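Target protein
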Amino acid sequence: KVPDSRGDSDGSRRGSLCDRHCAAINNAQGDLGDLGCHLHRPRVTPATSTPSCCQQHSEEVCESCVVKTTLTAENAVEANKLSNNYKFGFKKWKSHVTARPWEDRSEIVKELYSDLNVIRGSGGSTLTCGNVLYLLLFGWWLSLLYILVAAVMFITIMGAPYGWLCCNLAGYFFWPFGKVIQKVEVPKSHQACAAGAGESSALLGGPTRRRWRPPCCLGSGYWHHASTAVWLCLGYPVLALAHGLVCVTAWLLIVLIPVAKLSARATSRVLLLPPERALIRRLRMTEVPLEGEVILCCYRAANPYYYKYAVDGINVFAVNLLPLVLVALVLGYVDSPNHLTGSAVKFTLALLSIMPLSYYIGMAIASISAQSNFAVGAVVNATFGSITELTFYITALIKGSREGNRCYAEVVKSALTGTLVGCVLFVPGLCMVIGGIRHQEQRFNSRSAGVSSALLFLSVGGVFAPTLFSKVYGKLVCGECHNVTQNPLGHYLCHNCHFDLMDNNGTLYYSHVQPLVYTVSILLPAAYLIGLFFTLKTHTHIYDIHISDCHMPGHHHSAVVHWSRWRALVILLLSTLCMSACADLATEHISPILTNSTISQYFIGVTVLAMVPELPEIVNGIQFALQNNLSLSIEIGNCIAVQVCMLQIPILVLFTIFYPTNFTLVFSDLHVYASMFSVVLMNYIFMDGKCDYFQGTVLVMVYFILLAVYFFAPSPSGC
């Protein structure tokens, strides 16, 4: 209902009405956290429809409702995180930094976090591909193992009750779907004895947590029974080890996490029950289950939505990749002589370890920024926003300087160019393609994209200015020339040609090129600061982000953060330290790959070394695009590209002043042409503020064409 109000409060009421309308549309789309909405005037006639917001109020109110992007958040911390996503220079982060209210989650997500102890009325058919996969991977040998353990229990005679239990569990774990394991109640005649036997101990999984007391009936006490000792010594350890193996394997496969829960619950609850208290039965649709606690009830072995699963706010992929960091560090520093593995394996492990560490760094930065004021967030983003790439680049330059190998500097230049080209073409193009599959046409804020585009033009021109200067005034030197026409005045065919800046004892470089490099390295960060001041202080209306105060029923105003500021800071520092160690290992073992590989060093730099650290950012961009928030997807690529030119390269130049290396701000022609063409094409695509999957396909195809050029290009001079 629209309140009938007059006076000075009319404008504020109109605005809040539009905000509630936007929030209602967001809630109807199923995303209460991130997706903004734009209201458009509906084309309806007043005679047949209810007057809309725009028809009831003035035109200027409608315009504010059209332009404004209204975001709904569960609490103040999430509101800060969402607002930071739209700020230039801040890391864009999709995942929540606070615990979402349980009632606000979808039924699919609720099922991911539920325990396997709920009986559903109708589970449907249990013959699915995931269940068959469980049978082939785990079911058959688990069942066989239970039969062998049952035979051992029968041989001991005293363990016969557990032998019968293992026989029943063999059939259950062969195909557990549609079956239930219940903990039956003790008969009344045995309640007094059972109460003294410690039924409510935590090990038995009872509902209370009272400390176990010695049994009053030694003849029938559970823990003093001889069969229990035999079971805990001979049967339980073997089965617990087997279920542990199943649990770890299923967890790593992610889609089989229900199997991991099944095995963990079986080890901690089922196998510790007295045999007479475990009831295994098959459920039927019309059958009423018996009274008693349900311990296990599983219907599906696989769930494809488990890619959304998070542990303490950390995505399951980042959790599973974290042990890879430990393996890479142990192998890299313990097996220095390469007795266990070769350099290629260690390089691959070190490079893959950068992905989870990048995720933890991004999560920590987003958590600190969301819980702090603007100044602290800006400092943290500026300090640690590019720490992943800079750590690798500086480590590679140090190693190249110690070995006197110019190839490392060329690889760093290739990685810088690959990051620039990939974030300008591949990241937004891929987001357009994937987002265009769900949405026919996507719109974005062309004004905010225009700011990033202008900074990109400025940064690319500044970065490549010393290169263009050297092409004009440098001396062309060729390594090998052949006379094609056998005539001294004829044509010559030359190879390995480059512009020599060190002619006449380096007069051109030290007197002209190097001062130009230092000048550019000062102007680019200054332009970056001006861009920050422009977008965050004087022209904040470009983004026009409004955090709605409309909280739907079930939203909580109090925030339960996953990581506190101190915890996020500790994780940020530890991740940065591990990142430095992994970067050191990667540069230590990249030399054999660069020397013995038939692939061009250009290609290795622009693909593997450039895009692997950016995979978490690419995933964030895809998630934003799927929710029709392409503005953030584009800003992710643009911000990384701007930071490469305006922050990372000046920092590398500053580093070479204090630690001389072979790095000079003179790029090859291929890097110059690829970067400039990419920026021009991106600005042409983004001019109209809307796009579809076809335009995204064009960007991706151009990126792959450039990769093909790098693949077939000869290795740079000095490698």
Remarks:
- The chain is about 60% helix and 5% strand.
- The chain has two domains: 113-184+226-305, 309-481+495-712.
- The longest helix spans residues 503-538.
- Confidence is low (pLDDT under 50) at residues 1-67, 189-220, 549-556.
